[in-house]
Amino acid sequence: MRPEILYPLFRPVTDLKGVGPRIGNLIEKVAGANLAHLLWHVPSGMIDRRYAPKIVDATPGVIATITVQVDQHRKPPNRRMPYKILCSDETGSLTLVFFHAHEDYLRKTLPEGETRVVSGQLEQFGSDLQITHPDHICTPEEIETLKKVEPVYPLTAGLTLKALGRAINATLVDVPELPEWADQSFVTKQHWPRWHEAVLQAHAPENARDLEPTTTARARLAYDELLSNQVALAVIRKHLRRAKGRPVSGSGALRQRVLKTLPFQLTPSQTVAIDEILADMGSDVRMLRLLQGDVGSGKTMVAVMAMLNAVECGAQSVLMAPTEILARQHLATIEPLAKAAGVRTVLLTGRERGKNRTSVLEALESGAAGFAVGTHALFQDDVGYKNLALAVIDEQHRFGVHQRLALAAKGQAVDTLVMTATPIPRTLMLTAYGDMEVSRLTEKPAGRTPIDTRILPIERLGQVTEAVGRALNDGAKVYWVCPLVEESEKLDVAAVEDRHAHLAEVFGDRVGLVHGRMKGPAKDKVMAEFINGGVDILVATTVIEVGVDVAAASVMVVEHAERFGLAQLHQLRGRIGRGATASTCLLLYAQPLSKMARARLTIMRETDDGFKIAEEDLRLRGAGELLGTRQSGMPEFKLADLQVHAELLAAARDDATLLLSRDPELTSERGQAVRTLLYLFERETAVRNLRSG
Ligand code: ADP
Ligand code: MG
């Protein structure tokens, strides 16, 4: 249960005075739905109202706060012209300008003959100095409340700074003082304020430097967020490991049989990875290992060896993939190998229904099936296993921690192997996986040919089509990928359908089409035709991004390559270059190409090293954006920016480790404070694991 002290922060923003459903929705869109989210919505700029000159000294173009005498209202002859109010001080005159003015209101707030303080942007209009629609008007007694710095927040259409600022101010008034969860000596050493002071300071910039992510206030808040991330990961990991593992060490007989049937040798890093995995499985500690390897580096092969090891001990293994296409692809790779070993493999996805599904479930429950391959359908409530010992998760970052836990909960002391092709830079890895053990596949299997990558403007589409025609004549298979139109699958589909129609005019029914809106069987049919049948050009959206393996594919065209992320382009390009023939990747872009976009496409041309691409991507775009993409499944940070706060991440990790080694259940005074921190950043899953443990 959330600690009571946090209740006020977890009220919805609509609890605030003046925030109704409409503004509430806008605030939710830009910052979040509850008051805590408003605290994380730190200023991106500021308006300095401390500049309070005499009129004669005032510089046009800046915001100024000026005390004036109101001399005369000048009502315009018609509504199209502005209402003007002439003002002055002892040094000069200033005109206030209002469009669509309400005279009554202006006469009340700016009565002739009175003194008022006005604040707003100064403009020079001919020889006149003027302010159009001052931001603030008050009496001289109130000047001190006005002469300060106003934070400026990121907004969204329809939401004014005034409305959002008011909501945030109302939240700040009630910020509770929370117990210190960070290590006190570390806080002192960093000269950090306490949490609530840090929040208040972050929202009260006095000068431009205060907006930097490195101020003591912002660094502290970033650290808090990273600490919550690291403690949560460590707790979950510990929980996974706490249930004692069971040693799973097979005889190697099945593995030997399969290795004999392979037309190739394992690469050295495959061999090392397999040894590491077998050692983990053989120990009585639960395995939690990440297998990281570029597209095509042979992760599936490694996984199969681990899966066979479990079956050699009379247990079962599952392999879970994020999409149905991928699950089927894995099945196609794994089933022949399993057959060679005499192991039965079943497929379980959302599409297995009725009798078919019943028989699959029976095979899993009775133990008749040693391998199961599928999607999240593998851990639904009614799925039971006779003796599940190993869960392999090919996730490409699409599964969350709790899904991994749900799958592992299907057996006793299940070892978990997570496979990923995304080359995550070291810093980011820590935030997504904590200190999970890692095996890396560093070299590509022999027999791969390098890919010739070229960057072309879309205007050369005609030439591209001709080149594709020549490649087809030489027996090539071609992927033609159309752009992702943001937030609209419909538009995506329209784009691929257009391109498909256009190419079909040239190449006839050798052109196939696959996109995310198609039904499963229709997708499979096209894929099957592309693999062995009459389809030689596959026009696709990014549904082909992950894992699909067609060895004969040697040409890839990507339209609007500038709209794709580098990691995504790398994944896409990994679909070709798998066979013996030379491969070509054509990245088509639309003009004008920004400098950044050109730099990114150039990286694609210059290297096919996934790690290098990821590092460059991180360097060019910043971690915020890299992490910000929802579908990446990487954690999104609100306050931490890993480009700036990488050292804080390392410190947070060390602190989390030390803390949990001393106080594994978080029961000490500091442990309790850290629990509050976990709730503050909505990491309830972790706390739940503490209690149940
Ligand atoms: P990943 O899952 O890492 O993308 P896969 O395991 O799907 O890669 O392997 C891609 C292809 O390479 C498969 O066709 C597989 O049979 C083949 N392969 C795997 N290991 C080797 C190897 N050591 N030598 C040659 N080919 C290999
Ligand atoms: Mg694969």
List the helices and strands and how they pair.
Elements: H1 21-30, H2 35-40, E1 45-48, E2 63-74, E3 83-89, E4 92-98, H3 103-109, E5 115-125, E6 128-132, E7 136-138, H4 143-146, E8 149-152, H5 161-173, H6 184-189, H7 195-202, H8 216-242, H9 253-261, H10 268-282, E9 288-293, H11 299-312, E10 316-320, H12 324-340, E11 345-348, H13 354-366, E12 371-374, E13 388-394, H14 401-408, E14 415-420, H15 426-433, E15 437-441, E16 451-457, H16 461-473, E17 477-481, H17 489-507, E18 511-514, H18 520-532, E19 537-540, E20 553-558, H19 566-573, E21 583-589, H20 595-606, H21 610-621, H22 623-628, H23 642-662, H24 669-680, H25 684-692
Parallel strand pairs: 4-6, 9-14, 9-15, 10-12, 10-13, 11-12, 13-14, 16-21, 17-19, 17-20, 18-19, 20-21
Antiparallel strand pairs: 1-8, 2-3, 2-5, 3-4, 5-6, 5-7
